[in-house]
Amino acid sequence: MLEIRDCENYDVAKALILEYSKIKGAESCFITLDKELADLEEFYKGGAILIGYENEKTIATIAIKNIDGNSCEAKRLYIKPEYRGKGYARFLMNEMLNKSRKLGFSEVTFTTKPEVMSVGYGLYQRMGFEETSTKDGVASMRMAL
Asked: How far apart are CA 109 and CA 132, in angstroms?
């Protein structure tokens, strides 16, 4: 069973994000990675980083970046490969949406690469996210809260 908690240890979040950054084909998703990792707390100020645990082992993450007080961007949805296929991505997405609402956001946006992350892309569509544009293989999506 997956348990989601607010990030209390930024080293844990940093390790998961670094692991995620090594996914082949996802390199363009990490344009601001150095800036982000240099100060996760500041980068996600006004938002949140959520960490997923299974039996107290860190296995997943998703982050919420404050864009303008009304909109936020979901970032860094990652589940360690050996824990995939258990429905955890949907659970993480729902927790991120709930947390975004609690933080007062009215819209969630994000970008993804459908050709690299086709399973995630399909999940986002099934959850009601709408694609707003596609450029260079990167889809921008949004959902009103």
From this structure: 9
